[in-house]
Each structure stands twice: as C-alpha cells, then as structure tokens.
Amino acid sequence: MYDVAVIGAGPAGTSAAITAAGYGASVLLLEKGKFPRQRVCGEFVSAESLALLTSLLSATSGLLERAPRLHCARVFVDGSMLEMPLEAPAASIPRIELDAALWNSAKAGGVDGREGHSVLTVEGPAPFAIRTADQNHFLARSLIDASGRWSNLNSRPNENTAGSAGKWIGVKAHFRESAPASSVDLYFFAGGYCGVQPVACGGETRINVCAMIRSAVGKSLQETFPQHPALYKRSQGWHIATEMAATSPLIFYQPEPFTNGVLRAGDAAGFVDPFIGDGISLALRGGVMAAQSLRSFFHGRSSLQQAGEMYEATYRRDLMHVFQTSSMIRRLLGLPAPIRTGIVRLLAGFPALTGYMVRHTR
Ligand SMILES: Cc1cc2nc3c(=O)[nH]c(=O)nc-3n(C[C@H](O)[C@H](O)[C@H](O)COP(=O)(O)OP(=O)(O)OC[C@H]3O[C@@H](n4cnc5c(N)ncnc54)[C@H](O)[C@@H]3O)c2cc1C
Fold first, then answer.
1. Which of 74, 103, 153, 247 shows the smallest number of beta carbons within 10 Å?
2. Ligand 1 proximal residues by C-beta, below 6 Å
3. What average pLDDT is seen over the chain?
4. pTM of the model
C-alpha cells in the first residue's frame, strides 16, 4: 500500500512524486512510455518556474546551465512584428532531456518509478486499486492523475464543435539553422501558429520548430511553413535534425483539479493554449502543489477529501488566471484580420500594455 500513486511521468507527475517523496511518503510513479522520449512541445520554459525546476532536478543534470536563455519574444502577425522583451528571461530546454532528467531525479529521491507501465483502470474510492496493461496490480491511499491532456483516464467529451477540418494538431521537429536568433518567434496565420526558438540538444545548438494547426491547414511542418511568408522564407535555410512528431487532439477545457477523490495535475487538470508557453510551468507548479496539499493527509492530520479541497482552492487561487487570460488572448487572435491588426499596432505602440498582458499569463 503506497501513500500516493502518481500516474504519468511528465513534468506534473515527476514534480508531484519528488515533492511527496521529500515529505517521507511512499510514492509509486507509473509511466506508460520509456525514457528518453520525445514530446510535441515548443520547449519554452517560462522564468517563474526555473527556480522550482532547479530545486527538483539533481545538481548534476547540467540541464539549466546548458539551456539557452530567451530574452525576447517576437510575434509576427498580419505583416506586423510585435517585439516583447521578457522581463525575466525564459529557458529553452529540449523535452527529451527535461523529462528524462526529472524522471532520474524522482528515482534518486526514493520514488518507486516504473516505466512501460500503462495504467488501464483505477478503482476507488480510496484506497485506490490500480491495474496496468501488463496485469500488475497496485494499491494506494491517494492518487494524483498526471497522465496528460488526453489519456484513457481523464478523456472528457469532445467539445470541439468545429468538425474534423477544425481539429487542432501539434507538430514539432528540431532543425539546423545558421545563426539562430536568440528570441522566441511566433508566426500567426489563419488556422494556427508556429513557434521557433534556439535549443541546445545532442551537443549542438538547433532550433525547435513547433506548430499548432487546424487539420484543414495540414498535418506536417512542411504544410505549415507556406502559411506565413516570413516563416516560409526563413524555413528555406533549415535542415531537419530530428523526425517530426505529431499529437492530437488538442482540446481546451475548464480546469478540474479535484474530482472523485483524485487530484489532477498538469494537463490532466486543464490544458492551457500552448502559445503562452506556460504549460510546463503550470505542470511543475501544479504537481508540487498537489503533493504539498497531501502532506497533512500523509501524516494523518487531514482526510483525503480535505487535502483535495485544499488543493482545489489553492489551484483556483494561484493558477486559474492563466487559463482565463490565455483564452481572452485566443479570442483576440481569432478576431477578423482588420480588427486584429489594429490591436497588434496598438500593443506595439504601448509596450507597458503588452508587458501587463504577458504578466497575466504567468
Ligand atoms: C503543440 C504544443 C506546444 C507546446 N509548447 C509549450 C511550450 O513551449 N512551453 C510550455 O510550457 N508548454 C508547452 N506546451 C504544453 C506542455 O507540453 C504541457 O503543458 C506539459 O507537457 C504538461 O505536462 P504534464 O506532465 O501534465 O503532461 P505530459 O507531459 O503530457 O505527461 C503525461 C505523461 O503521462 C503518461 N501517461 C498517459 N496516460 C498514461 C497511463 N494510462 N498510464 C501511465 N502513464 C500515462 C504519458 O506517457 C506522459 O509521459 C505545448 C503543448 C503542445 C501540444
């Protein structure tokens, strides 16, 4: 009988597991994949979670030291370019290295981590009975679902009414570019956007190119590039360095951090629009917050229900505004082009206003 079982070893699951083990809890961490593994992601890690990340990673990982710092975001939309200095620089960290380093840190911290264990069913209420695809059974007094935005454990009804042509797809690959810019560059076009930033991976500096596109636009980066003239021109000098990875569906829900006695962290609680570059940070902070809320339960000072309610209240107080601001910006970007262009020009003329908006996505 474990004190807590954590399902999914992305940033949310590993941060929850490391924190819970630090409180002396017995922790089971189940991951269906095997490390190292790719994730479709812009690999932009925002500044507000870098100190937390440092405390979670083992001192020898060297990951943060190697990571290029991003001091500025450039947004290319409707022929205009909006340049936004990042008050505190973000880091660019390849997910293939970040997730593996967090996994190693969890194992080193005493977590019973098991790769290649896909959870099939969870039966509650507590204690939870967990069954994996290879017929292993586990029992845990509490459960954190960190299995991502679209798993067999938390898939919700498809609220995407746009039909299959309107379905969102995420695609990503690393490329080589001579003299990559040190900014994160976002190219917006009808039916999606594409982010480009430098990343240190495999002993060299590459660029990570990651797009979120409607399926009507295409299913690959090659179909994405012609959607924006400046992106297309820039892409002509690139050489592919990794295979392209893709993921779908990408569906935005109102966050649900605590349901049926289960604490949900990261994308399993709520998926935030990737263009704000805060999903990893939300996952790290949410995972830690879930484990912190369970601390009194581990030590017999509160019930699981009380711990879950405390988590939900803290989540709503500290993280909910990010979802609200990002959906407001998404609505702005979806406005007809002339209005959108006017807004972009207005923002370009008032950097303080842009800074205010960026701060509210953090
Ligand atoms: C196109 C795109 C671009 C993005 N760009 C950025 C960016 O630049 N910056 C940023 O901060 N965020 C970005 N994000 C968001 C970010 O990737 C996520 O918010 C983040 O990965 C969430 O972490 P997580 O731990 O909640 O979930 P995940 O990283 O998805 O991890 C979930 C884990 O659970 C495992 N799992 C699933 N089901 C089971 C099961 N049944 N049993 C066992 N294990 C299971 C999976 O294998 C996976 O390892 C982007 C997302 C997309 C789609």
1. 74
2. 7-13, 30-33, 39-44, 118-119, 146-148, 151-153, 170, 210, 212, 247, 250, 266-268, 274, 277-281, 283
3. 90
4. 0.93
